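Exam revision sheet. Question 4 asks you to relate a sequence to its structure. Input first:
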Amino acid sequence: MRFIAQFLTLIILISTPLAYTATSPTEAIIQNSSISENPGRYRLSESSSDCTFWTDYPSEKVFKDEAIPEITYSGIDLYLAKDEFEPFQLVLHPDKDLNIQVKLQDKPQGIDVELYKVEYVNLKQVTDNLGQVGLYPDPLYPIEMNDNITAKAGENTTLWFSLKSSVNINAGDYTLFVSINDTVIPVRIHVFDFAIPSELHVKSQINVSTNSVLEKYGVSGTSENYWKYVDSFKQFMIDHRLTPKNALWSGGLTSNGGSPYINYDSTSGAFTDPHGIWGFEYPADRYLKGNTNSLNASLSADAFNEGTGFPSFMAITFRNNDASADQRPDVFDGITRKSSDWYQSDNLKNAYNQKWFRYIQNLEAYLKKTGYLDKAYYYFANEPQDQADYDAVSWYAQALKKSAPDLKLMISEEPKPEIFNNEKYPNVKIDQWLAVLNKYDPDVSWDREAHYGEDTWAYFLHGTKPPYFNPITLDHPGIESKLTGWFLWQYRIKGIAHYAFNDWQKNVWTETMTSNHNGDNFMLYPPGKDNKPIEYGATNHRYVSSIRFELMRDSLEDYEYLYLLNNKNQPQVYQENPADNQVDKIIYGLTSYNRDSHYMYTLRKYIGMTLSGDLKTIPDIQASNTHDRSETTGQAYYINFQDPSVAPTDNPLVVAGKTYLKIGWNPYDQTLGYGWYGDMAHVMSRYLSDVTDPLKASVLYDDWGREKTFEFDLPNGDYKVTVACGWQGKTYKHNKIFIEGHAFIDDKSITDYLERSKTITIKDNKLTMEMGIFDEYTMLNYLHIEPPTEPLSSIKATDVKSSEPSVWAVEGIHLLSKALTLPNFYYADYQSSMTRRDYSELMVRTYMTLTDTPEALLKASSSTTFIDTKDSWVLRAHALSIIGGYGNQKFGSEDPITREQIAVVTISMLKAAGITFEKDSSALAPFIDQHQISSWALSALERAYENHIINGDGNGAIMPKANLTREQALLIIHNLLIHAENW
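Answer key, structure tokens:
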């Protein structure tokens, strides 16, 4: 079974009045003015006769020859929370060379402004089909107000402004004025009535070289200047909501391989730190706890980061990338390590092992005593490749957990059964899996988190290419960096990592590519464009950032908006939360995203206004149309996937009365309104001349099985979609097609041909189809997109009150009463809604029946787990990982339980009982209301349907949001017990 992502977006045309009732003066303004339609890309009406000024969203990269927009608007509007950074771009296009000075007028107190000039690097090769060669905007070079700047005639010069609001600023409206020579441009700033949390809720591990920073900025020695740069670079990173790989540089706890930096007495097991600023405890106090400086006279006496330190740190790490090698110190506590001390011998009683694992045990105790254990982790292996690697990391992880069960372990690998269910060393616990994004499998990761308490982080490599987004890639659209926080929220990913944030061994100003990937090993630039050290202080001690880096910060601040929208709670796997409906509008699947900058910034603004109390609810908005086809409703479209230049050559191609578009492997083209995202290096097409049907004779596929995403612009609405895959006379075992998050063909073996249909809803003016499994063939034939014959609104649920069961339910409930002992109240008020509390007890009693577990052996979660219930059955269900709360320590005992919640809880109960089963989602009935299923419930609901636990209504609907009646719940348990013997 594979994870299925479907996303609900209820949206209306942004060009029409917002369809909701205004309940406050602010809401009335939004409804009745152009605030919801303010453009982000426009010519400024303040432009002069010799210089045009214009602007664009920060996520849109401005090239030197970019066309000046035609829409005209006055000034610039910004929205930000307290203690938030927010950028904007101001573009100058003069008719003749122009020397300018930038000044600020009437800068409000509590607003800081930094100015950068957008620089360009010359790309000689593209990373993939999203890039372009030539001068490419990315570096942000710091300049000061009143500096002289030259804007060349006939080309764009872009200034990047970064505003920062104080945590103490009053909410409300402010205006500052940007003066460029004689032109004055108003910048209107609205500060929301809430603050970005100082704590970072996305953890990270960013491999930065502080030594490179010190060298390139002309810092010598280890005196005052040295420490000021160490401290300021720490602040620079945490300002961008990212954590350096070693948050404690230059002090530390251990070296590569794990040897202690500070003093360790192996006899007593005690750690002592006499090293002060060069040790562990002083820098930890400052950079992990955020405390004031009390020892280092070179630093400010102010608290670090307003009293909030980094959320995590790497306490121990490996020495090299050979995952099967013993990477511990060659000599430890006087004992030389031997080959017999490693996993092949499996002997923990060897002298070296006894010394080493006692040290690990004492290290955990020391971290617990000093208060840093919750933030510490041991990153002990990198990218295991084969069985020897899997065995080595599994053995070592087991041994480490025996000695230090609470010290978190990290490995750079997606959760793999070769490790957590290793045959030689079973039941391995890895606290933090670090999955490269293009190998991330949410289904496995979510299961490991829900049932084993293991988190998954993500990292990006040169192999993370389209259709996956990659915020590191220099020549990708800026919106990809803005997607990061939204994607992490959608998939419950707890952190991110990158292996080389400022690798300046070569001059990245002129050599941008590593491993065929522009920007792979840097997101910061050295201050000298020749890569030589600058004179100390030449940039006024400011770092040379990049557009990617600033947008990454933006996205992580967006994550904090979602955190606040979720009542200051992190998202939990298999649980819906208030922020999900908004995230669904941006992230549709692992490889399908909303790339509309206007939409994203507008949505973020409305979220901020709602958090601030300016709006009661977040308006539903729609992405901008990008093609005329998106405005033509009621039209059916038929696509034959083929090389358009070869057979079938009929023009037009008409089959069975339907006229087909011929679409091949062209990258997405806005003019065409369709195309592909992905690596096009190995794409293939074939026409099978011995097949009579021209649609089935046409085949598109990737020779390496790399994933692809196809987009086709359409009006929003409901469609019956049909897709076909196959190759006559051949079998391919791992075909995969997802459309709008729905699994049409999910890792399914196909002999000859397979056609699947479902009703789906388009919400962003694009049909999005994800295709392929790495290193496997998906053979794509044709696609039909047709308006449905029956409106979805015709399906309604009934709500009949009765104290007697329905005729159709009598027999099943009678049989259930013989098989399962239940309190009498379950057998009354059959048409009333089943509550979350009552279904919890029903699930636990079913679990007892399936596992022959007596009630006396059931454990319960702590009575403090939920603040609104102490019910023993609820706490037992929670302890078994059957059901969770709402994420704010509330359970909602008397809330009616919905059919999709039932599916998730029931599947979780079966897992707890040791019953697992695969589903063939491609055999799932095409429910006409499947678009209503929440993303967190779709996988469980499809498994429940496939295995006869939950049925449809007989009219083509599954009714996921409907409340479940008591008799329906009892029938579900009846069906479950009948079919359990086949599982």
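Marking note for examiners. The chain has 20 helices and 39 strands.
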